């Protein structure tokens, strides 16, 4: 049984797993891991790849008819750099669907909230469909939605940390506060983290290090595919309530007297 499809901007996807393209040993390993993961959308760090397809580039190894490319502004620390990077990606033919990162701290790679808001505002005005990487802040996510962002991408934990969902309660509050898709970005470390995140009701997950940095990336890509699918199905099915005391699986009514 398949989980329901979901929509981001003007695009519809069956897979709720979005994967990054960095940190792999080779372009071939990247291609294979993405294929195994079942992802239909992949992020591309514009400042870290070769956009000239006449040279050996990651873009030559991924079929644009099969995957939706999501250019991101990784490595940007200012509004100006983030906006220019998105514009460069669009000029290179990567479309107007973009992930916006404006980093505010080199050690934690936490986003700069004010700069993220401003960059998102300028990009929306310029016709981009913006997915902002942001903190797990309810007010911030609501402001980003009000600006016209097509999704919000709160972190679960610092980028590449593998710590899992540090504050599920904030994620739940964000889900209640906004109507656009909520996509967990950063912090997932293993399959159980992915399932737990999906069981909260988020629309999807974005991950890179958890797969590319695993001992066997191709196996982890398969594990993450299954974890995202099972977590979403569990959310749609609806878990049983948690209770302090036992509840018999078989009812007492209708027992035969001995």
Question: Could you characterize what this model shows?
Answer:
This protein is α/β, with parallel strands linked by helices. It has one domain: TIM Barrel (Alpha-Beta Barrel). The protein contains 8 helices and 10 strands. The protein has helices spanning 27-37, 79-91, 113-125, 138-147, 168-177, 191-199, 209-212, 217-237; strands at residues 6-8, 11-13, 17-19, 41-45, 68-72, 97-100, 129-134, 153-154, 183-185, 204-207. It has a 5-stranded parallel beta sheet with strand order 5-4-3-10-9. α6 links the parallel β9 (183-185) and β10. α4 runs parallel beside α5 (168-177). It starts with 5 loop residues before the first strand and ends in a 21-residue tail after the last helix.
Summary tags:
258 residues; alpha/beta; 10 strands; globular; TIM Barrel; 5-stranded parallel beta sheet
The fraction of residues assigned to DSSP E strands is: 5-15%
Principal-axis shape equals globular
Secondary-structure-based class equals alpha/beta
Helix content range: 25-40%
